[in-house]
């Protein structure tokens, strides 16, 4: 009897030890160490890029007016970031990005949901969606300009075509890898069609769908930058328009300053997606706790 009573306690201690081993055996550190652990690799990477950049400038492959160095670009960047007109250009670009991406999410969600569950649509459009995803966005602009002229609608059209297929494929992939046992459990609970999608399929597809959203944003941002370089709209200053005129005026420092702003915006949005991904992983118990 004593052996029988001791066995559950022994098993409990063993399982607790395995759980601690799986979770890394530690607890979260303070806020400051965690922030520093996240920031210093970025600072190191920026320092390395600036050092390589300056070394290329010193090598003299191009004249200064073609390829400006950090010493010339940083003051120009500071001047532009203190200009209200420059912030208006950033605002126009971000408005176009958010609008195009929001419509892309809606289109991709509907398209992915239909194609993933209806076999006829999968056979008809599955490969087409992948083909659209791999097509360069710049190739759509001649058609977009013919259809909509040199307007904002032409840019939005290409942004949607660039982003929606990636979002749809992300959802399709998530649905395809939904464990059958979850579907059977949903049927046992009485879920049918929309209820099954809402309570079982979509939650199970979230990791793949989030990856599709992240990739879709990358395609949308690249399509938008290409569009603003090609479609110059009067009285609507944007980051792409700034790049265009800096190139026309051979203003290398201004061009590189705007490219840095575009890069920073892209990194900022990527950090938002990474935060959402980490939150999802913690909710699903997939993220290890580190010291």
What does this structure look like?
Helix 4 packs antiparallel against helix 5, helix 7 runs antiparallel to helix 9 and helix 9 packs parallel to helix 10. This protein has one domain: Orthogonal Bundle (MetI-like fold), CATH 1.10.3720. The protein has 291 residues and is an all-alpha fold. The chain is 80% helix and 0% strand. Its main location: membrane. It comes from Streptosporangium minutum. It is a multi-pass membrane protein. This is ABC transporter permease.
Give short descriptive properties of this protein:
291 residues, mainly alpha, MetI-like fold, 11 helices, globular, disordered N terminus, transport
Average pLDDT metric: 82
Strand pairing plus helix content: what structural class? mainly alpha
Structurally, how many domains make up the residues?
1
Number of helices: 11
* Radius of gyration using CA atoms only: 25 Å
Distance between the termini: 42 Å
Residue stretches low in confidence (pLDDT < 50, at least 5 long) are: 1-6, 14-27
In N-to-C order, the SSE pattern is HHHHHHHHHHH
**CATH level-four homologous superfamily name:** MetI-like
CATH architecture annotation name: Orthogonal Bundle
CATH class: Mainly Alpha
Summarize the biggest pleated sheet.
none
How much beta, percentage-wise? under 5%
Please tally the β strands and state the result. Answer: 0
Reported by name, the CATH topology is MetI-like fold
Coarse morphology: globular
Percentage of helical residues?
over 70%
Detail the topology: elements first, then pairings.
Elements (H helix, E strand, L loop, with lengths): L1 H21 L8 H29 L10 H12 L2 H34 L1 H16 L6 H8 L3 H25 L3 H9 L5 H37 L8 H10 L3 H32 L8
């Amino acid at each position: 009897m004593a052996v029988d009573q001791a066995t559950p306690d022994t098993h409990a201690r063993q399982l607790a030890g395995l759980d601690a081993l799986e979770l890394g055996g530690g607890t979260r550190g303070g806020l400051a160490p965690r922030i520093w652990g996240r920031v210093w690799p970025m600072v190191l990477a920026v320092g390395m890029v600036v050092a390589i950049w300056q070394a290329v400038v010193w090598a003299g492959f191009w004249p200064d007016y073609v390829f400006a160095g950090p010493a010339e670009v940083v003051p120009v960047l500071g001047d532009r970031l203190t200009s209200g007109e420059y912030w208006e250009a950033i605002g126009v670009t971000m408005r176009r990005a958010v609008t195009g991406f929001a419509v892309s999410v809606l289109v991709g969600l509907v398209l992915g949901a239909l194609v993933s569950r209806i076999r006829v649509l999968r056979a008809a459009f599955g490969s087409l969606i992948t083909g659209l995803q791999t097509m360069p966005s710049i190739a759509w602009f001649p058609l977009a300009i013919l259809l909509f002229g040199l307007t904002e609608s032409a840019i939005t059209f290409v942004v949607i075509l660039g982003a929606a297929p990636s979002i749809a494929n992300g959802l399709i992939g998530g649905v395809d890898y939904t464990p059958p046992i979850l579907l059977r459990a949903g049927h046992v609970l009485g879920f049918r069609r929309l209820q099954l999608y809402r309570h079982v399929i979509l939650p199970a597809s979230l990791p793949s769908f989030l990856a599709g959203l992240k990739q879709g944003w990358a395609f949308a941002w690249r399509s938008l930058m290409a569009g603003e370089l090609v479609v110059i709209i009067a009285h609507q200053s944007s980051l792409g328009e700034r790049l265009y005129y800096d190139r026309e005026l051979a203003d290398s420092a201004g061009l590189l300053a705007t490219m840095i702003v575009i890069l920073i915006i892209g990194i900022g949005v990527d950090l938002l997606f990474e935060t959402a991904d980490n939150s999802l992983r913690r909710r699903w118990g997939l993220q290890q706790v580190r010291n």
